[in-house]
Design a protein that fits this description.
Distance between the termini: 33 Å
Strand content: under 5%
CATH topology of the largest domain: Arc Repressor Mutant, subunit A
Largest sheet: 2 strands, antiparallel
Number of helices: 7
Helix content: 40-55%
Radius of gyration: 18 Å
CATH architecture of the largest domain: Orthogonal Bundle
Number of domains: 2
Strand order of the largest sheet: 1-2
Order of helices and strands: HHHEEHHHH
Structural class: mainly alpha
């Protein structure tokens, strides 16, 4: 798998993640409709992500050229779609310092964040929609992300029985099952 290093700011990463999410859900976004949706999110959530249709055109070009996204335009649905749903958006890699800051921030939050706030954020990050308000939701698009939490933190996950079944039955988790 080829790693892509592109200088992308948080707003652009949010737009790319959201656009790819729309494509994966077969919503056929076009530049105008997607811009309107971002502007609505900007107003509703006060997150400062509004942009122009030209910005979305540049984002689509970036997805196609750097991330090899199989994106085409469908005139019947007046929107873009993925020609290959097996394609995964490998979010840009961060520097060692950024990763360290994320890990330390997560540890800090784990130690200081009270229940039920910790469980609420975990549930939104793992099972909620991708949003800039909870940046960890972007991990849902990573092809091999593993989240390991304690029972208390997992209390609000709606699919926890499924996750438990995977842990108890999938062979790749055997070494971890033996240690508990």
């Amino acid at each position: 798998m080829e790693r892509v290093f592109v200088n992308i700011n948080k707003k652009q990463l949010y737009r790319l993640l959201k656009f790819v999410g729309e494509l994966k859900e077969n919503r056929y976004p076009n530049c105008k409709s997607f811009t309107e949706e971002l502007n609505k999110v900007d107003i509703d959530d006060n997150v400062s992500i509004n942009c122009s249709t030209k910005t979305i055109q540049r984002d689509i070009k970036l997805l196609k050229e750097y991330f090899k996204a199989p994106i085409e335009f469908n005139t019947e649905f007046n929107g873009f779609y993925l020609t290959n749903h097996g394609w995964d958006f490998n979010a840009p890699l961060y520097s060692e310092e950024e990763l360290l800051a994320s890990v330390l921030g997560a540890k800090f939050a784990q130690d200081l964040m009270p229940e039920p706030l910790k469980s609420e954020i975990l549930a939104k990050a793992v099972e909620g929609p991708i949003t800039s308000m909870i940046s960890a939701t972007a991990l849902q698009l990573h092809p091999s992300c593993t989240v390991i939490v304690d029972e208390d933190a997992a209390s609000l996950l709606t699919e926890k029985e499924y996750y438990r079944w995977i842990f108890q039955n999938e062979p790749q988790w055997e070494p971890y099952r033996e240690s508990i």
